[in-house]
Amino acid sequence: MSLMEIIIGILILVLSIVTIIICLSQEQKSQDSMTAALTGASADSFYGKNEGRTKEAILNKITRTLSILIFIAVLAVNIIPIFTDK
User: Fold this and answer.
1) Which of 7, 24, 25, 84 is the most exposed place for a label (fewest CB within 10 A)?
2) 63 CB neighbour count, 10 Å cutoff
């Protein structure tokens, strides 16, 4: 196992942990309506409506970017030995 494979393996591990944390920090959509129905809470203000969407949009973009980086790193780990063994 080369040094480059070890570095990319550590990168995959870190990216995976960060992706899991970001996915867990995203709000669940199905329980929001149930909570509002039970408590009578409403987010009809401009700030209440747009803050959630903005945070969700940012977290979705970060999650998508991290998953693409993980995919590229996994491909790199599997392609590197092909070129270094010769």
Assistant:
1) 24
2) 17
